[in-house]
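Exam revision sheet. Question 4 asks you to relate a sequence to its structure. Input first:
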Amino acid sequence: MAETEEGVPAGEQTEGKTTYKIRLKVLDRETAQYRYATLDEAKAWDWDNPETWRMIGGWQITSFQQLLNILYRKMEKGYTEVEILESPRFMILAGG
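Answer key, structure tokens:
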């Protein structure tokens, strides 16, 4: 289970299960502004729009499930924050 909470260490043990917590820091390349997003907000993003690209560490994220998979791997490694680059497709393909 992934939760987004500020300032909570990853890998907290609860009743024999590990609950991972991570912050999603989103950089909007059009405005150059950072914001934090919750998993509920990320789930509501328009994942079917091919004109908006989201990337983590050079990997393009094309679905909410793929985002969860990457977040899970990052949390296993002890990351407490992940930066998501959100940009129109033309900015990434044209070199920004």
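Marking note for examiners. Confidence is low (pLDDT under 50) at residues 4-11.
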